[in-house]
Amino acid sequence: MCGRYVITKPVTKTKDLVKTNIKVEDKDNYNAHPTQKLPIIKSYTNGRALENCDWGLVPSWAKDKKDFRPLINARLETLMEKVSFKKLIQTSRCLVIADGYYEWKRENKEKTPYYFTKTDSSLMFLAGIHQNNQFCIITREANETVKNIHHREPLIINQEQILNYLNIKNEGMDTLRSIKPPELKFHVVRKDVNKPINNDPSLINSGA
Q1: Average of per-residue pLDDT values in the chain
Q2: Cα(111)–Cα(116) distance, rounded to whole angstroms?
Q3: 121 CB contacts (<8 Å, ≥6 apart)?
């Protein structure tokens, strides 16, 4: 799964990709977590826009929305089987932007946090779906490099395939299945990241 990530200078880093910025500020977030309003890229008929949406999607069919736990991830393998996601992957795709993400390795009762980035440190574009100003991140089975830490990883879209994914005239699942995961690098970070209240650059530093 993907439950925490980092995004810095979202406006600056996406200025060449979007036409409109809808009230997003160029703030740094070193511990982006579910329920927060976070910047994503959506596609509209008049162009792409950067806007803040809530991380965690409550399906339209949920009767008691107050007690429904928002869905933060959607598995690529079952997207077309889940009522919650089948329509959204066809009509409501988005990109979640990130510098990197955190994942935890479980060993016995101990969980060790790691920070993942692309080997070239470039911006990540995580495949997502959205509904009612909420979004969730699509995940896939982890590649061999990542699998030793966790069996899932976010589906990272190559920059040259961004337009294909956002264009709803294209078959979203075909695009996602064709994407090869990029090479990632990672290191252990301090357990300070476990608490969402902690949010500063030191969180991504190597530590034990």
Answers
A1: 92
A2: 16
A3: 99
Q: Tell me the per-residue pLDDT of 159-182, one tens digit each, with 9 for 90 and over.
A: 889 999 999 889 989 999 999 989
N-terminal to C-terminal alpha carbon distance within the chain: 22
Identify the DSSP state of 102: E
- The alpha helices in the chain, defined as continuous H runs, are 10-14, 83-91, 144-147, 162-166, 172-178
Q: What number is the average pLDDT over the span 191-208?
A: 92
Q: How far is it, in rounded angstroms, from Cα 39 to Cα 97?
A: 7
Catalytic residue set? 2, 103
Q: What is the pLDDT of residues 35-49, one digit of tens each?
A: 999 999 999 888 999
Strands 47-55 and 20-22: parallel
Report yes or no: 121 and 148 within 8 Å, Cβ to Cβ: no
Tokens 């929305």: give the residue: 65
**Environment class of residue 118 by beta-carbon count within 10 Å: exposed (0-12), middle (13-18) or buried (19+)?**
middle
**One-letter amino acid of 178:** S
Fold for 4-104+121-184, please state it.
hypothetical protein yedk fold (3.90.1680)
Ordered by start, the domain boundaries in the chain are: 4-104+121-184
Q: What separation in angstroms does the CA of 167 have from each of 53, 110, 207?
A: 20, 43, 41
Residues 182/165, Cβ–Cβ less than 8 Å: no
* Global confidence as pTM: 0.94
